[in-house]
Amino acid sequence: MSLSRRTAARSVRMLGVTAASAALALSAAGTALANDIKDFSAEAACDGTQGVITVTDKNAAGTPAIVTVFLENNGADLRQVGKPQNVKGTAAGVTVSFAEAWEPNVTYRVHIKAGNDVNADVEPFLTTPAKACKADDTSTPSTTPSSTESSTPSDTAPPPVETVTPSPSDSASDSAAPVPSASNVPSAAVQESNLAETGANSNTGLIVGIAAALVVVGGGAVFFGMRRRGSSNR
Question: Which pTM value belongs to this model?
Fold first, then answer.
């Protein structure tokens, strides 16, 4: 009888130890699966040329959580970034993103609400990098040779020559001006011909004078000759 009691007592003690061990294991497992603010992390990154704030949930329990992001200014909320987002974490981590054109060296507060276990901010607060996302460079480098550039019209090109079109009044005045007739205006050749015909500017007068003198002399010689002949006949 005493042996049986000892065996039973040992069995009870072993069961107690086993139950305690199981309780401790379950407690440890429950603690590991419970939500913890340390399961969440935040980062400011760039999605191409756009800024984003990403929040990662690595809670293995998969408890749904609500993530809200605020822009801070001197320890106060300046504005809320977008709308709150739901996330259900895994051991590998699940990420949600908030589009935000963040500036360098600014602070954001990330608040987590997960069931009854977590209602706190991610610590420390998120501080953005010192360099913002690279802006999209839309300018196209010029590959045109300088010779091509010189062939294009420039501001230094001479202005076009303006063509002066005579006005109707100028044309009328020009056409109305009298044109001297060739028959009314004697030319230099005609004047010289008339002078030659009239004896002007020639030796005709001298010749006539000499001829007259010769006639007078001849007449006198004839007169004296006849007179001498008459006297000789007497």
Answer: 0.47
